[in-house]
Amino acid sequence: MDHVTATHPGDSAAPRPHVAENLVEVDDLKVHFPIRAGIFRTQVGTVKAVDGVTFDIRRGETLGLVGESGCGKSTTGRAVIRLREPTDGTVRFDGADLGELKSGDLRRMRRRMQIIFQDPYGSLDPRMTVGSIISEPIDTHRLAKGNEKKARVADLLRIVGLDPTYVSRYPHEFSGGQRQRIGVARALAVEPEFIVCDEPISALDVSIQAQVLNLLTELRARLGLTYLFIAHDLSVVKHISDRVAVMYLGKLVEVGPPDVMYARPGHPYTRALLSAVPVPDPQAERRRKRVILTGDVPSPVNPPPGCRFHTRCWLYERLGKPEECRTLDPPLREVAGEHEAACHFAEEALETDVGVAHIDERPVRRGTPARALEAMASERSAATPEGTVASGTS
Amino acid sequence: MATDTRVLSAGAALTRTSEGVWRDAFGRLRKNRLAIVGLFGVLLLAFGGTLGPMLAPWSYQVQDQAAVLANGARPLHPFQDSTHILGTDELGRDLFSRLLDGAQISLSVALVVQIVVLTIGVPIGAIAGWFGGRIDTYLMRFTDVIYAFPDLLLIILFSVAFRETAFGQTLNGLLMVFVAIGLTSWVTVARLVRGQMLALKETEFVEAARAIGVSDRNIVVRHLLPNGIGPVIVAITLGVPGAILAEATLAFLGVGVQPPRASWGWLIADGQRFIRTDAHLTLLPALLIATALISFTFLGDGLRDALDPKLKGKQ
Amino acid sequence: MTSPTDDAWEEPSVIDLPPEEALREARVAKERRADRAEKLLEVRGLSTHFFTPDGVVKAVEDVSFELGYGETLGLVGESGCGKSVTALSVTRLVPDPPGRIVAGEVIFDGTNVLSLSDEAMRRLRGKEIGFIFQDPLTSLNPTLTIGYQIAESIREHMGLSHKAASERVVELLSKVGIPQPRDRLTDYPFQFSGGMRQRVMIAIALSCDPKLLLADEPTTALDVTIQAQILELIQRLSEEFHTAVLLITHDLGIAAGMCQRINVMYAGRIVETAGVDELFEKPQMPYSWGLLDSLPRLDDVRGARLRTIEGLPPLLVDQVDACLFSPRCAYARDVCRESEPALTPRGSSAHLARCWATEPGGWIT
User: Fold this and answer.
1) Structural domains of chain B sorted by starting position, each given as residue range(s) with its CATH number in brackets
2) Closest by Cα among A63, A96, A91 to A225
3) Is B204's CB within 8 Å of A117's CB?
4) Which of A15, A388, B1, B178 could pair with A27 in a Cys bridge, judged by C-beta atoms 3.0 to 4.6 Å apart?
């Protein structure tokens, strides 16, 4: 599969030509929020939440977007589907510039791109029944009426693993995981091609996270969906994404396939991020060489000059505080095939083994021991109805 | 504590049968005894005000002078005469019937003033809240100005100014009273609606609706109004006592509803001179005003507790 | 701060004391409090119930464990499993009503906690137990400067003068890694970032040199890089001052890195307890298996379907004599539904599990 390499921001003002394989093309996206103060509410500053982000998402691909709070990933997700007006830059969906569309066309386009939210408690209207919540998109786009609509709603509930009789219930009667499933059903109601998943499992319990993650993976395969998966959990993102993009203070610092990128990160921030993720393996934890970043994330109102990360960058210190880092904002450039990084010294960053979780050649240990799986398998084949299976959904 | 509430909700959520949010609230209301007492009082007022004057033994204007003369030219006391259960005033007008007329006046004040309040307050608040920005600023500063006016003074001035006009004479001045009180009381509702709009506009489910492509109009109608209406209902319920009191005060001062209509306030004013000998003329209307006020207040408090979002569908 | 060499490169995140001073501090700290019993904390048969209009919620049922001096113990489980309530019960902070400790014994540093008067308990809590909660924003008083809040505790429980207390506050702030501590004494909580606020909370928690640090999801609200800083800080300080840590978390990764021993809780009970290596190497309870299975890990093979635990945690209101995990357990048999298994040893008395299947003689051994 060919990959269109991102141009360097600041190159040409015109966006790149549309490539048929790309469903989503984002060019130099910027979202700035004015800060107003005083009686007349004059603008005193700008929050540069997203400050020049460029990427593509191929049809059927899942692009993971990770970063810590304040990096702009949620804002990016919303700007891509035009829930937020970008301050600058273009977003093209299947070749069409979303900024150029008239409101009626934009509304029709919304059928093809949907969003799943993070908060299972806030994203569903508490006064509407589950049925109404899922019907609303169908009504808005006039996709079905009467009995056909009811059938579709029931189907959607089944697809996400919920009992169709739940249509007349209200959101507060369900658990967090179930509410997320309702949110997924709502997003699927219009038969979209592209879904922005904004931290869809962060607010859920561990065992429920896995269920919803499996659901999203299955749906992707079954319905041929394209995802922009936004999360702060690197392990989750790796699990579901074909490529991962790391954001810091409104810009992309690294993009690449997770297997490659996680093993050999080309950006010091990615290394720090990876090294900070706890791994459920006590021996590995003991042996890790962690990179602990100093200080807090700088404010997006006043990002540091040059490379935004240099004020906390361990590589910067180690290399003797090179001047480029202070003065020049490094562009996102290719380091190996699909792997790109925005660092003047990406080559050096690639070579060190600082920060990588040293989980090595030992086979990955899972929880369930082999003998338990064998015992269950032999039971099933002996056809004695003793093992219980899932009761109810969550 | 996050732990125990979620523990409880896991239980409650799956054992409770399907109930609407409103039914839930109504259930909570039913359990609140003071609220039920209040509701009872409100219903009594409603009954008295609508059907009362039709069922009253006497018309509120009729002067039974014979009975008064037979009583030594003194007002009759309660239970003194079987045709005038609560007695009469010095002109022989049946007190019970006049109290019922007063009930009608108070009830209509309760209803109509709140309608005026909603008609002015909701659109202003909704427009300010929905559009935000400069529109919001200007509308809210305008609201502040209105709020700054001393209500009663304004109402009195308004009444005195229009008392002699045709407008002021309609329904014995009742129409003018409605408008006067309504014009000054909409501020609370406007602010409330604006606040609700601002808060709800930013919720994720509204964002979700926009992501689906729901039109602005439908967002307001299907999402914002149903969610925002709770506090507004409470506000207008709690606003009624103020309106009733304002009307009574106007009548007491002689600038509200004019005789021969028997506003409770006027009855109190009129009965003052007999307070030592025929206290019932003052006490009974005063008692009724107090009852009406307390009833609406209890009901309003009960509604507020019942609709409190923190108690709704425990999360 | 930066080491020029390549290999053992660990950048410390706080201002370090010179080694001799650190040693001296630790020795002084050790002497300051004599260990009065064999174990710092002994909990036996603790049960805490909540009496609600919907019924009696048995949030914690028959929980027993021990915590040694200077040891780090993890209480691990999902929401509603009772881990927070256990910690609150041990420190007698359960809101009453509707909650009440209905059974059990809690011996802290040789003292029977449940029999103390409220006043004595308050003094014990202030002096010997430090708390770190999940949300530093709501745990700190927004209207008081942090200097005041930290000093308050010190003055109350250690009887120091204003000046001495201030000095100690500065010392504490620098220990937890707050730059320019003297200048920040007069700052208010909102002037700190999330990570810094959590450091302030740690400073308050350690201000009176407590024997136990109770950390309830201390990093859940923080970004992962800040989380790493805070966890490293807690670990280092607990080693330095020989402070035991009761760490409550849902994150098995954090538990793996911080704890020496782990209690896995489910539905108000401890379902497995083991040393950390043993638990991750040879877990003996299907819920533990499920938890470990369902985590996507950095070292995973990508895209493989995660093995999940179906269903939902049980309602703690209606309870039966059965294994509470059995409705979700793929290995359950009739006996699991008929009677609740007890915590029994698996190989050594240090590793206990509550499961019929993995008991000696069970069907998965």
Assistant:
1) 37-301 (1.10.3720.10)
2) A63
3) yes
4) A15
